[in-house]
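step=encode ok
step=design start
structure_in=
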C-alpha cells in the first residue's frame, strides 16, 4: 500500500498544479479528472497567442483583416484567416479549398454556401480530436463569404470543431481579440471603405503593428460574380484617400457579360 501511495502522490500533485507533466496530456482524446481535454486546451492556448485577426460584415460586404498577410482565398466568394500555428492554419485553408472545389464539381450550378464550408471544417477539426493518431489543429479560423443570396456571412471555427455563426457581424481571434471586438462593438459601418478602415484600425491598435492585410468581398450588380479588394495598409494609409478610391473601384458593381460566377 505504501508503494502505491508513493507512486500516486506525484501524479496527484501534478494534477493539482495544472496541465504540466500529467499522463492526461499525452493523448488528444483522453479526459483528465476535471473533464478537460488537455491537448485541446493547449491548441486553444496556441491560437490565443497568435496575431489578432478580425472579420466584419456590413451592408452585404465581408471584410477580413490580419497581421502578417495570413488571409487566404478559398474560392471566388470566400476568404479565411487564422490565428495560431501558421502551418496548421495553412493546412485547414487547404482543406476548405478542396472541400469547396468538390462542392462545385458536385453541384456545378450552385456556389458553396459559407455555412456548408464552415461546418465541413468544424467536422474535420473535431475528427482529429477523437483519435486516429493526429493532434488538434493549433489555430482558430475566421471564414467570411458571400452566400448565393448576396448575404455576407462570418463564421469562426475552433480547434475542437466548435463553429459559430456571428450574426452580429463582428468576430476576432488571436491575442487581443477582446479589445478588437470591444472597439468594434458600437461601430455601424455605412459602406465598404468605412468597414475596412474600422477593422484595420482596431487590429493595428490591438497588435501595435505597422501594417495589416485587408480583403473585402461583395457581389456584383447581377448578384452572381464576387468582387474583391485586397491591400496592405499602414496606419498612415488610413488617413489618405488613395486606398478608398481603389476599394470603391474594386467593389464597384459591373453589368458586363464577361463575369465569372465562381
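sequence_out=
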Amino acid at each position: 500500500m505504501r508503494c502505491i501511495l508513493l507512486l500516486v502522490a506525484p501524479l496527484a500533485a501534478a494534477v493539482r498544479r495544472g496541465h504540466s507533466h500529467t499522463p492526461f496530456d499525452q493523448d488528444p482524446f483522453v479526459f483528465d479528472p476535471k473533464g478537460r481535454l488537455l491537448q485541446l486546451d493547449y491548441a486553444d492556448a496556441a491560437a490565443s497567442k497568435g496575431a489578432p485577426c478580425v472579420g466584419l460584415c456590413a451592408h452585404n460586404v465581408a471584410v477580413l483583416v490580419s497581421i502578417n498577410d495570413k488571409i487566404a482565398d478559398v474560392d471566388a466568394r470566400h476568404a479565411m484567416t487564422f490565428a495560431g500555428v501558421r502551418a496548421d492554419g495553412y493546412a485547414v485553408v487547404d482543406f476548405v479549398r478542396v472541400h469547396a472545389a468538390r462542392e462545385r464539381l458536385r453541384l456545378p450550378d450552385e456556389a458553396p454556401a459559407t455555412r456548408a464550408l464552415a461546418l465541413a471544417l468544424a467536422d474535420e477539426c473535431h475528427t482529429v480530436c477523437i483519435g486516429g493518431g493526429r493532434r488538434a489543429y493549433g489555430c482558430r479560423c475566421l471564414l467570411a463569404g458571400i452566400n448565393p443570396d448576396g448575404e455576407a456571412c462570418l463564421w469562426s471555427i475552433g480547434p475542437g470543431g466548435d463553429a459559430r455563426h456571428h450574426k452580429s457581424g463582428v468576430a476576432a481571434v488571436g491575442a487581443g481579440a477582446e479589445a478588437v471586438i470591444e472597439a468594434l462593438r458600437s461601430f455601424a459601418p455605412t459602406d465598404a471603405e468605412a468597414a475596412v478602415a474600422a477593422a484595420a484600425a482596431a487590429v493595428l491598435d490591438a497588435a501595435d503593428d505597422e501594417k495589416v492585410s485587408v480583403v473585402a468581398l461583395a457581389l456584383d450588380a447581377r448578384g452572381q460574380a464576387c468582387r474583391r479588394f485586397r491591400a496592405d495598409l499602414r496606419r498612415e494609409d488610413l488617413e489618405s484617400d488613395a486606398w478608398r478610391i481603389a476599394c470603391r473601384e474594386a467593389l464597384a458593381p459591373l453589368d458586363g457579360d464577361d463575369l465569372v460566377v465562381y
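step=design ok
step=annotate ok -> Helices lie at 2-17, 38-48, 86-106, 114-127, 177-184, 192-207, 242-250.
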